[in-house]
Design goal:
Strand 2 and strand 3 form a beta hairpin. The protein contains eleven helices and three strands. It has a three-stranded antiparallel β-sheet with strand order 1-2-3, with helices on one face. By secondary structure, it is mainly α.
Length: 254
């Protein structure tokens, strides 16, 4: 089973043009946590045996019960998956037998997600992915993204994009190729480096316009890029200021 997983995992990485250090925990984590949600043969063997055992238990066939110990077989499957404690804590009151395999996979994918979060380099910020599960699932469906954009998105998730601060990406040090920054991290490239300033501004204006248009559809009075003075007489600019005249409520999106 482990050999099958290696073949499938390496094939998926090759087809998606992903580097070799792309974490396996990302491959097996749920798509709701920005993982790929790939099937794992090492899990499926015990899960299918566990499912068949429960089906036989429900049938209550006295001959089957005499031939084998169904409860013992079920425990062995859970032990192979190393989820005895998690399975005991699972609420099985309104759960059908057919739903048990899916719940077990969810437990295993959650454990993979936990291992992913613990990675020192490729797990930075991963624990925040669980806050936006619906958005993560939509992004994985690739709607609105080209193939190259989607592949780059996959590389950005576990921090395996070709930036110099990632181990194994550069032999000339970690300095930024465009400015004097010592570490060329993704945070620096996407949020600070002056080389990408125009692209960041373009992205900001595009997203601001999308939000403003949605507020206008809600019959709100919307103003964009308003210049104001701060308490210390400094110049400030708010991105969006929306007013709901009926409710007499203002919304400041800076």
């Amino acid at each position: 089973m482990e050999d099958i997983d290696k073949i499938i995992g390496s094939s998926v990485k090759e087809m998606c043009c992903l580097p070799n250090d792309f974490p396996n925990s990302t491959i097996y984590s749920s798509t709701m946590k920005k993982g790929i949600g790939l099937i794992r043969a090492k899990w499926e063997g015990p899960i299918q045996i566990f499912n068949m055992t429960n089906t036989l238990k429900v049938s209550r066939n006295k001959y089957v019960e005499e031939l084998c110990n169904l409860d013992e077989n079920a425990k062995k499957c859970l032990s192979r998956l190393n989820i005895n404690e998690e399975y005991e804590n699972l609420d099985k009151t309104n759960l059908k037998i057919k739903e048990l395999p899916r719940k077990i996979r969810d437990i295993l994918r959650q454990k993979e997600y936990g291992d992913w979060c613990k990675l020192p380099c490729h797990g930075k910020g991963v624990e925040l992915f669980q806050d936006c599960e619906k958005i993560n699932s939509k992004l994985f469906s690739k709607n609105g993204l080209s193939t190259s954009e989607w592949i780059n998105y996959l590389k950005l998730i576990p921090n395996v994009a070709p930036s110099r601060s990632i181990p194994g990406r550069s032999q000339d040090g970690t300095h930024c190729r465009r400015c004097s920054e010592k570490n060329e991290t993704l945070a620096h490239i996407l949020g600070f480096c002056q080389f990408g300033l125009l692209l960041r501004n373009k992205r900001h204006h595009f997203i601001r316009s999308l939000i403003a248009e949605q507020l206008r559809q809600l019959k709100m009075e919307v103003y964009e890029e308003i210049h104001v003075n701060g308490f210390n007489d400094s110049n400030r600019r708010t991105d969006i200021f929306a007013i709901d005249r009926k409710k007499q409520v203002g919304l400041d999106l800076s």
